[in-house]
């Protein structure tokens, strides 16, 4: 019966795309259902023969809350210690906190003893040693999305590129994709999904018509050494009516002036709405 | 790796405990908790817990499993105690109902010890005999 239950669930997961459709499960619902199966397995191992569905759901909710509470406490301990990854000490602290309501051996002398010499850990070790192992009814396929979003996995991949730059300290964030700053790496292979978000709407380097104007969109890749660029706004240009703002005060203290001539935009030969124009003055 | 270092630094002169803990952690590698790793990872990621170490994920799973098992055991004791409290002559008639069923009543009593106050509507759909008067229940 149990295996049947999981089978239907898996079927639902495969079809799970838009959560708005009827009969589909959102990821949290799916997680809840999987937890319910696990909890019912535990209940059966304890000795129950059957369960009221409301009672089972309540116990499932409590179990999920317990897990999340444990995780968030451990995460907050690691954040207090200026770490992003949690370790055993954080988890032990969290376990001590969570089980302090019921009490455990050695709870009174937590500060005196070593943190890892915790009664809770020993109880869990005893549970593992003496309890029988009940694996989950069915293996769950790991979702590909979770892998892509997982920070840990990303870090693992970064280590390869990091080995090239040993002088860079480990705590610095990883370099962006090499294609975003190195022109030699760019080519027809360039994958659209890996572009900068600024360019995500427009195909790179293409001209296209938008609102009567032809716009040229430049790529987001910046050369390492660039010329100094000056912008000018509010100065009458050579071939068009200029308009703009004087940026000398307030935000732009550098005294840079930005220039944008309307004539340039309409002109067929120089489509440069986004292209910074080298200033003449 | 990280926590192993911490572990070694912070516990000099406690070799027995250290050895036991190390052994326990390494035994988690071969242990399959009832709560699957994927599910635990989902909840951990939701709560902002980052850790590449499988052993810690298993530890969280085992801790949760232990908690659920304890609550369920308490509920089972409540259930047995309730059934034992019935007067002897009635017991034969209720033999049918003596199956061990996880009910809201027992669960809420068990959870109260863990600081969870459950006040849940007992749904009529849970049990066909709910709401009937006790006399007709026995028949």
Automatic annotation (TrEMBL), chain A:
Keyword Transcription regulation: yes
One Pfam assignment: Bromo_TP
SMART domains named in the record: BTP (SM00576)
Start and end residues of each Bromodomain associated domain: 28-104
Superkingdom of the organism of origin: Eukaryota
MF-aspect GO terms: protein heterodimerization activity
Chief subcellular location: nucleus
UniProt keywords, alphabetically: Nucleus, Transcription, Transcription regulation
Transcription keyword on record: yes
Subcellular localization: Nucleus
InterPro entries with a match to the protein in the record: BTP, Histone-fold, TAF8
GO cellular component: transcription factor TFIID complex
Comp. bias intervals (Basic residues): 1-14
Positions of the UniProt region annotated as Disordered: 1-28
PANTHER family per UniProt: TRANSCRIPTION INITIATION FACTOR TFIID SUBUNIT 8, TRANSCRIPTION INITIATION FACTOR TFIID SUBUNIT 8-LIKE
Protein's UniProt name: Bromodomain associated domain-containing protein
Organism: Citrus x changshan-huyou
From TrEMBL, chain B:
GO biological process: transcription initiation at RNA polymerase II promoter
UniProt entry keywords in alphabetical sequence: Nucleus, Transcription, Transcription regulation
One cellular component term from this protein's GO annotations in UniProt: transcription factor TFIID complex
Subcellular location, principal: nucleus
CDD domains (UniProt xref): HFD_TAF10
Free-text function comment from the UniProt entry: TAFs are components of the transcription factor IID (TFIID) complex that is essential for mediating regulation of RNA polymerase transcription.
Protein name: Transcription initiation factor TFIID subunit 10
């Amino acid at each position: 019966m149990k295996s049947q239950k999981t089978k239907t669930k898996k079927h639902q997961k495969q079809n799970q795309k838009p959560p708005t459709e009827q009969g589909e499960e959102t990821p949290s619902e799916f997680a809840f259902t999987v937890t319910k199966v696990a909890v019912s397995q535990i209940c059966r191992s304890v000795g129950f023969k059957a369960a009221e569905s409301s009672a089972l759901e309540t116990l499932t909710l409590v179990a999920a809350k317990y897990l999340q509470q444990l995780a968030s406490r451990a995460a907050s301990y690691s954040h207090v210690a200026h770490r992003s990854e949690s370790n055993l000490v954080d988890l032990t602290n969290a376990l001590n906190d969570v089980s302090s309501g019921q009490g455990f051996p050695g709870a009174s002398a937590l500060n005196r003893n070593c943190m890892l010499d915790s009664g809770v850990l020993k109880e869990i070790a005893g549970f593992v040693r003496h309890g029988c192992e009940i694996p989950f009814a069915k293996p769950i396929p790991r979702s590909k999305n979770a892998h892509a979003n997982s920070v840990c996995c990303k870090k693992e991949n970064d280590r390869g590129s990091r080995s090239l730059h040993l002088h860079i300290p480990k705590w610095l964030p990883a370099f962006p994709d090499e294609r975003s700053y190195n022109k030699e790496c760019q080519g027809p292979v360039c994958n659209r999904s890996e572009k900068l978000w600024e360019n995500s709407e427009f195909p790179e380097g293409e001209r296209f018509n938008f609102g009567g104007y032809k716009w040229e969109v430049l790529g987001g890749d910046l050369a390492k050494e660039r010329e100094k660029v000056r912008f000018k706004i509010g100065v009458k240009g050579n071939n068009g009516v200029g308009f703009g703002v004087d940026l000398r005060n307030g935000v732009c203290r550098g005294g840079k002036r930005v220039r944008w001539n309307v004539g340039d935009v309409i002109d067929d030969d120089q489509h440069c709405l986004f292209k910074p124009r080298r200033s003449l003055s | 790796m990280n926590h192993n270092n911490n572990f070694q630094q912070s516990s000099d002169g406690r070799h027995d405990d250290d050895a036991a803990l190390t052994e326990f952690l390494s035994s988690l590698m071969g242990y399959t908790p009832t709560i699957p790793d994927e599910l635990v990872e989902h909840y951990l990621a939701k709560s902002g817990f980052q850790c590449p170490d499988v052993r810690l994920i298993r530890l969280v799973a085992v801790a949760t499993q232990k908690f659920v098992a304890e609550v369920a055991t308490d509920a089972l004791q409540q259930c047995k105690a309730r059934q034992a409290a019935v007067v002897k002559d009635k017991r034969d008639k209720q033999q049918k109902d003596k199956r061990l069923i996880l009910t809201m009543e027992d669960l809420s009593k068990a959870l109260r010890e863990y600081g969870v106050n459950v006040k849940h509507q007992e749904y009529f759909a849970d049990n066909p005999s709910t709401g009937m008067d006790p006399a007709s229940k026995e028949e």
